[in-house]
Design a protein that fits this description.
By secondary structure, the protein is α+β, with helices and mostly antiparallel strands. Helices cover 48% and strands 15% of the residues. The strands form two sheets. Strands 2-1-6-5 form a four-stranded mixed beta sheet, covered by helices on one side. Strands 3-4 form a two-stranded antiparallel ribbon. Helix 4 crosses helix 7 and helix 6 (175-194) packs antiparallel against helix 7 (199-219).
């Protein structure tokens, strides 16, 4: 969805509304006029929440660019964040191949769950089967964010002076060692190209670069989400233009 799609003049408003109406007609609503809508973080890929939408809720989301749902218990529309101000700002909307479920791809202004958790999905079936207590910080994380979480835990262990010795802790305690490793791993990554090494070697060296770089991010208190957000913002800008703008700012 183009960010400027609805930022248009009244001259073009009617054709757009007709397009939206046609789109809404194509959705396979259930016998109650509803479809499942899942909100997903545009940068992290995290599943934030699930709700239901009807025709009006989806139309409102398209025009307002705020995730809007239909409350089955109250039989009314509601916009996520209307009481907490933790809106989910929509960047795009996807429908599945059968057109009976929807993804709201957006950026949350704050915690999505009413419990204060970042997402509504923090209950692991594995933990439940082990009869472990559910922690709101135990989010459903993909590989990159699991690594970020592990690095943060190692930093906390340093503060409390507990846990086993680890390479991550050594790097967190020695900035010179960390920077030398990042340079070393970056060089090894380049050599996989220069020396025409196997693609598996390239993947392995890139994994080393990412790991060590993420330790540096932890020391600088920068989240990988912040990095991905910067990348997303650059999608619509030429790399040459972006470098030129940085050069003019620095001069």
């Amino acid at each position: 969805m183009n960010p400027g799609f609805f930022a248009t003049t009244h001259v073009y408003l009617m054709p757009i509304l007709l397009l939206v109406d046609t789109l809404l007609d194509s959705i396979k609503w259930d016998d109650k006029g509803l479809a499942v809508a899942i909100a997903q973080n545009v940068d992290t890929g995290a599943i934030l929440m699930q709700g239901f939408v009807n025709r009006d809720a989806l139309a409102t989301t398209i025009t307002s660019r705020k995730a809007t749902f239909f409350s089955r218990s109250r039989a009314t529309l509601w916009t996520k964040g209307e009481t907490s101000n933790n809106f989910i700002n929509i960047y795009d909307i996807f429908v599945d191949c059968d057109r009976d479920s929807i993804i709201y791809l957006g950026k949350p202004d704050g915690p999505t769950c009413h419990t204060g958790s970042e997402t509504c999905y923090f209950t692991s079936i594995g933990d439940l089967l082990k009869e472990q207590d559910v922690e709101k910080t135990n989010l459903a994380l993909t590989t990159l964010y699991s690594l970020e979480s592990t690095i943060s835990k190692r930093e906390l262990e340093l503060t409390g002076k507990h846990g086993k010795p680890s390479w991550t802790k050594r790097l967190l305690l020695d900035e010179n060692l960390l920077c030398s490793k990042i340079r070393e791993e970056a060089d090894e990554l380049c050599r996989t190209l220069e020396e025409k090494e196997d693609s598996s070697c390239t993947a392995s060296e890139m994994a080393d670069v990412m790991y060590h770089a993420m330790v540096l991010l932890r020391l600088k208190d920068v989240k990988i989400e912040n990095v991905l957000e910067v990348l997303r913002r650059r999608f619509s800008q030429s790399g040459i233009e972006e470098k030129q703008s940085r050069a003019s700012t620095e001069s």
